[in-house]
Design brief:
The chain is mainly alpha-helical. The chain has helices spanning 2-29, 33-38, 47-68, 73-97, 102-133. It contains five helices and no strands. The longest helix is centred in the last third of the chain and has 32 residues, at 102-133.
């Protein structure tokens, strides 16, 4: 049972790596006026916040990709669940604190929702993995 849960956790880490990579790239590119104009978004401000978040997301994508190959998967799954939960909070704070254009607000809220789903799935996968790896107590 533990191997099946481990494989599911690695698949989830791979999917989250792709999501974090795409989100990180978007956060890095949206402050660039040429990019934001091309996709119909107004340039986002404060740009250093979005760039810092984008770099953090790309770094996390690399860590998740490593975990998807089976390296420190359980530890990274715990980190990813906590990081995604924190990401949801950051997105909501950005929406509440800054007067963002409607399109950016919707995009951040959609990203926060998908990130919350990943946080919940990772927490559940980690819990199932740890439960299946624990001794059953049967003799």
């Amino acid at each position: 049972m533990s191997e099946r849960n481990g494989a599911a956790m690695r698949l989830l880490m791979g999917a989250d790596a792709v999501w974090d990579g795409l989100l990180g790239l978007a956060l890095l590119l949206l402050p660039v006026a040429a990019v934001s104009d091309a996709v119909g978004f107004p340039a986002v401000r404060p740009w250093p916040v979005y760039c810092a978040l984008g770099v953090a997301m790309l770094a996390m994508a690399l860590v998740l990709a490593r975990a998807a190959r089976g390296i420190d998967t359980a530890a990274v799954c715990k980190l990813a669940a906590l990081g995604n939960a924190a990401g949801v909070v950051v997105a909501v704070v950005l929406v509440l604190v800054f007067a963002l254009p409607a399109a950016v607000t919707v995009a951040l809220l959609v990203a926060a929702f998908v990130t919350a789903v990943f946080a919940a799935l990772e927490a559940a996968a980690l819990s199932a993995f740890l439960a299946s790896a624990a001794p059953s107590g049967r003799a």
